[in-house]
Amino acid sequence: MLNIALFGAPGAGKGTQSEKLIKDHNLAYIATGDILRREILEGSDLGKKAKSIIDEGGLVSDEIIVQIIEKNITTNTEVNGFLFDGFPRTYVQAYILEGLLLKLNTELTCMLSLDITEEEAIDRLLNRAKTSGRSDDNLKVIKNRLKEYRNKTLPVANFYKDKNIFMSINGMGSVKEVYNRLNDAIELTLKKALLNVVIFGHPGAGKGTQAEMLAEKYNLIYISTGDLLRTEIGKKTELGKKASEYLKTGSIVPDEIVIRLLENKIKKNPKANGYLFNGFPRTMVQAYILEGLLLKLNSSISCMIEIRVPMLELFRRLSHRAKTDSKKTYDNETEAIVKRLEDYENITVPVAEYYRSQNKVYTVDGIGNKEDIFTRLSAHIEAAFKRAR
To answer: What is the DSSP letter of 280?
Structure first.
């Protein structure tokens, strides 16, 4: 998702620029002032709580604000992301937004700061006062608002600078000129975003063949846990010796072995455009592990592609593979094949449901020649990439 925080002093033009950004990028507009007033007008429970506080001259708490924001995020399901205007305004709110987006399986893509001089801000707000009728558009109030911005809101910039997602945008010039700068910054940010794909399907579904082709086409680092493990076994490393006993029986290799191999592979490719995972995650625990690994890179899973093949066809393919040079250790034993398929149904299918709840799963018919299947997979990956970017 494309989640943007638009930052800038009063008068920087956030509201004006937001209108075009949300239209061109299909974003939902999250302006805390606007949604707070809407909740009050609609008489919702949150709105009533906020109104009682405001009527008594108090400030609406972060707890209420974050509940209202969460409500707006979870009810806007047909958008590509969110544009936050007026939030976060404090260092504390930056942490709140971080946690909220993590809870909703997403993150802030970038913070764009519209920078103008204080003199320009004062001139713009005084000119606005001639037509706006706003009581806070007078010199004394404007100066106090700018002082409040400097003291409380500017430190938020440091929070996002530390995460390397803060971008300073020259806010001087025409509306079109400033918008073009904002749009260029968004495009640059999206190009830097990692695109991470999980190939999913029963043993025998053809994941390995398709995954390598897709990784090459989209310039992604191919990570097959099976290949990594077999390499370790071939080198007779300690990890390889431990893994060998599990693979012989078709059992899932313990996570403490697999995670070390994944970390090493990712560390060796620091300039990757993204990763294509085959054979991981196979369990819910592994799904959480992968989230943690990608979170270190300020990234997440872009999509999961499920290759679906009927059960009888899977048996036929695995039995045939046992007679070829590409056979796996468990292909020769019917019992081992059955165990692999049962493990998949009982342990791995819930992982797909986990990603499906995040609208990240694309299902592809795995019957046909590899070129036809590859075409279907490519179409879904490109759709997922457009959505992610």
So the answer is: -
Q: What's the burial of 93, exposed, middle or buried (CB within 10 Å: 0-12/13-18/19+)? A: buried
Distance CA 115, CA 176 (A): 15
> Whole-model pTM above 0.85?
no
Angle (CA) 341 342 345, round 5°:
90
CB 282 within 8 A of CB 312: no
195-254 pLDDT, tens digit per residue, is 899 998 888 888 888 999 999 998 899 999 888 888 888 898 888 888 888 877 767 788
Fold of 2-192: Rossmann fold (3.40.50)
Output the CA torsion sign for 269, 274, 278, 284.
positive
Burial string for 238-261 (b: 16+ CB within 10 Å, else e) reads: ebbebbbeebeebebbebebbbeb
Residues 6 or more apart from 145 whose CB is under 8 A from it?
Answer: 10, 136
Q: Which CATH superfamily is domain 197-388 in?
A: P-loop containing nucleotide triphosphate hydrolases (3.40.50.300)
Tokens of 339: 């165990």
106 token code pair: 């997403």
The token pair at 196 is 């991470």
Tokens of 313: 């066809």
What's the CA gap between 329 and 249, in Å, rounded? 8
